[in-house]
Write a structure and sequence with these properties.
Structural class: alpha+beta
Strand order of the largest sheet: 2-1-6-7-9-8
CATH architecture of one domain: Roll
CATH topology of one domain: SH3 type barrels
Number of strands: 9
Strand content: 25-35%
Oligomer: single chain
CATH class of one domain: Mainly Beta
């Protein structure tokens, strides 16, 4: 009897990734429907692949963050518009207003540090090697390094992060 896990004809990893990205959409939609105001201490760090299909950011940001970028939704954001496939938002970078359009499939992490909640995703985009980049610095400090450890874990700041990694056979 073989100890290898058989390949599945059901794409469980894709289904779970899609469901977890729907959590991000639901949270953002509730903020949008509440008039764009975040409750109490809540704020979100959203990390996404800048080169993913459908991502629309100003050229200066794409130059500064050629692979991945983390934005902060806290005090200074506007025009949050949530769709079934993604969201758009206005943010200020070094006091320069910008409009960003981000598909949910481009998101690699979502964190609400106020309640120690976090999700990390496998990139839906073709595997791109991460490049070094500056923190976004739009509303506050950027997040620390992301962990590649699977399952629920306690990060250095004490927050719980849910990571999904199915280790698909190639």
């Amino acid at each position: 009897m073989s100890e290898q896990t058989p390949d599945s004809l059901i794409p469980y990893d894709e289904i779970v990734q899609e469901a977890l990205r729907a959590v991000v959409g639901r949270v953002l939609r509730e903020i949008e429907q509440g008039g764009g105001e975040l409750p109490e201490r809540h704020h979100f760090y959203i990390t996404f692949k800048t080169g993913a299909p459908g991502v629309s950011i100003p050229p200066s940001l794409r130059e500064r963050f050629p692979d991945e970028m983390t934005i902060v939704l806290q005090n200074k954001f506007w025009d949050l518009n949530v769709r079934d496939d993604g969201f758009s938002v206005g943010l200020s970078f070094n006091q320069v207003p910008a409009h960003l359009d981000i598909p949910f499939a481009a998101i690699t992490a979502f964190v609400d540090p106020a309640v120690d909640f976090g999700l990390q995703f496998q990139a839906s985009v073709a595997d791109m090697a991460p490049e070094a980049h500056d923190d976004a610095e739009n509303d506050g400090p950027g997040r620390g390094e992301q962990s590649d450890k699977p399952a629920v874990e306690e990060s250095e700041d004490g927050s719980n992060v849910v990571t999904v990694d199915f280790g698909r056979k190639k």
